[in-house]
Design goal:
Blueprint (H helix, E strand, L loop, with lengths): L5 E4 L7 E2 L1 H10 L5 H4 L7 H7 L5 H12 L5 H8 L3 E3 L2 H10 L4 E6 L3 H7 L17 E4 H4 L6 H10 L7 E4 L3 H9 L3 E3 L8 H8 L2
Parallel strand pairs: 1-4, 1-6, 4-5, 6-7
Antiparallel strand pairs: 2-3
Protein name: HAD family phosphatase
Pfam families: Hydrolase
InterPro entries: HAD-like_sf, HAD-SF_hydro_IA, HAD_sf, PGP-like_dom2
């Protein structure tokens, strides 16, 4: 086994604890009756997916959501609903990333959108007042790359841009479909459960 030099983390379900039920409830509150069908823990559907893969911008998404609900929704109401996904941001996991960066290159590879990222990239992201960018060498987000996991194209973009060699990289993601694509590309992988403290498991892989 080649020595691991890089670690790639997913965001939701790995670094951030997710609450899918709360997100669905909040979107239903603002009038999205089919929220259960549109919202997925791993990859959204319809125009929600279009926001996450960069096909539409925030203004277009907000307009489409207003049309979909038949309501004049404010940006704050829409952001409140999206933020329903966020159950907790465990500081101990972020601190662990800083420790890992002393020996490894650490990357983010996430299906996300500019509304959630407007919070994540601000000082409000952690009690420590540090934005998400402070914890990674580079970040690859679906809406900026223009494609969502599990499409191999988002992995290829990261491999080329970082650059990194999959055989020298550990990929940590909570979605089976993403893990399978990563394995097919030659990454070492670990699939934690949402909310899991995966630090020991990651250290065990790195020690091999």
């Amino acid at each position: 086994m080649k020595r691991i030099r890089n670690i790639v983390f997913d965001l939701g379900g790995v670094l951030i604890d997710l609450d899918h039920h709360q997100a669905v409830s909040r979107f239903e509150e603002i009038g999205v009756k089919d929220a259960k069908q549109l919202l997925d823990p791993y990859e959204q559907k319809g125009f929600f997916l279009e926001l996450e893969n960069g096909k539409i911008d925030v203004d277009t998404f907000c307009r489409k959501l207003c049309e979909h609900t038949g309501k004049q929704l404010s940006y704050d109401e829409i952001k409140y609903a999206w933020m329903g996904f966020i159950a907790d941001v465990p500081q101990y996991k972020l601190n662990f990333l800083l420790e890992l960066r002393k020996k490894y290159k650490v990357y983010l590879l996430s299906n996300t959108n500019p509304i959630v990222q407007s919070w994540a990239r601000s000082e409000a992201f952690t009690p420590a007042g540090r934005p998400i960018s402070a914890y990674f060498d580079k970040m690859y987000t679906s809406y900026e790359v223009g494609v969502t996991k599990p499409d191999a194209a988002i992995f290829d973009r990261m491999i080329e841009n970082a650059p990194l060699i999959p055989a020298e990289t550990l990929f940590v993601d909570d979605a089976k479909s993403n893990i399978e694509v990563g394995q097919g590309l030659g990454f070492h992988t670990y699939q934690p459960e949402n909310g899991e403290d995966w630090r020991e498991a990651v250290l065990n892989i790195l020690a091999k």
